[in-house]
From TrEMBL:
Name this protein carries in UniProt: GDP-L-fucose synthase
Pfam families: Epimerase
Keywords, ordered alphabetically: Membrane, Oxidoreductase, Transmembrane, Transmembrane helix
Keyword Membrane: yes
Top-rank lineage group of the source organism: Bacteria
């Protein structure tokens, strides 16, 4: 297995009519490269899935602050530097980590670069928030569904292979908006309010597993035009999940079991703090709903099994 590299790859020699010919380097384009998952996509500890060497071209609207190591491994392309120019490098394989509802804006870019296969990140929130009491969450679910439909329609119209990866709650490295937000709440207030028994099941998935699966999905032969729901390897109740965050922080679990009316008051108070602006009543309601998805298709098609809910100090932002 080769390591990821964005430096010019060595020529792979094959034989055709007795002559050696170089196999062209494979180039992978990335949209949303500065996102939470994108930050881990280029991690050196991931071994290369493809049997060919390949390089990365990451697209961004902003100049990135990169270390010398990162600069040597990833080529960055500014989206405002005329990425549609005819003389630009051909990119047949793509991983799209930007919100899937903005992906249609990049269809001309993908087509102009000769896209042949696309892996796009979505979310199981498409299903779990579809009937939320929070209108903002309903709109999110609709945007996810619409983005998926537009990708499928466009890709099939242009004979481009697609794979959609819908994830459950993603956590890891203290950069997520789920586990890290709960951790910050605990560190600030020392307790967590729960609606009822908070027995709804969760399957948190580590960001590194999501990044690795994107690689697998991109290069897996004979798997095309499918959507996968991918979840963590462990199912546990919302309360048990929060208890594990307490334990990782080294703080004794402390809960208040409250009715919905009091939750509305608490949420109004929390909105004073910028980092808790996204806390909603819908989140509280889902504490007692099972948000689980089978990994059977993922295991069958990719022989891939995400880790259980394993937390480190880094994962809780401590």
């Amino acid at each position: 297995m080769r390591r990821f590299t964005s430096t010019p790859a060595p020529l792979t020699l094959s034989f055709l009519d007795g002559h050696r010919v170089p196999e062209p380097e494979l180039v992978v384009g990335v949209l949303g490269a500065t996102s939470f998952v994108g930050n881990r996509l280029f991690a050196r500890e991931f071994t290369q899935i493809s049997d060919r060497d390949y390089s990365w071209i990451a697209f961004s609207r902003n100049l990135q602050k990169l270390t010398d190591e990162e600069t040597g491994r990833v080529h960055w392309c500014m989206l405002n530097d005329n990425p549609l120019a005819a003389d630009k490098q051909k990119i047949e394989y793509w991983i799209c980590l930007a919100p899937i509802w903005v992906l249609p804006e990049y269809f001309p870019l993908l087509k102009s670069r000769g896209a042949r296969r696309i892996v796009a990140l979505s979310s199981t929130s498409r299903f779990t928030k579809e009937h939320s009491i929070d209108l903002t969450e309903q709109k999110l679910a609709n945007r996810l569904a619409d983005g998926e439909h537009q990708l499928i329609s466009w890709a099939e119209q242009h004979q481009i292979e697609w794979i959609i990866v819908r994830t459950t709650m993603i956590y890891g490295w203290g950069r997520d908006q789920n586990i890290t937000m709960i951790s910050r709440f605990i560190q600030r207030f020392g307790f967590v309010p729960l609606l009822g028994k908070a027995e709804g099941l969760r399957q948190p998935i580590h960001v590194d597993d999501v990044a690795q699966f994107c690689h697998l999905a991109l290069f897996k032969k004979n798997i095309t035009n499918k959507a996968y729901n991918i979840s963590g390897g462990e199912s546990l109740s919302y309360k048990k999940m929060v208890e594990r965050i307490f334990t990782t922080l080294g703080i004794k679990p402390f809960f208040f079991h409250l009715p919905l009316m009091f939750f509305r008051i608490i949420i109004t108070f929390l909105h004073i703090f910028p980092r808790f602006k996204k806390v909603s009543v819908g989140m509280a309601k889902r504490m007692n709903q099972d948000l689980t998805f089978s990994n059977k298709d993922v295991k069958r098609d990719f022989e891939f099994e995400p880790r259980g809910f394993e937390l480190s100090k880094d994962d809780v932002g401590k």
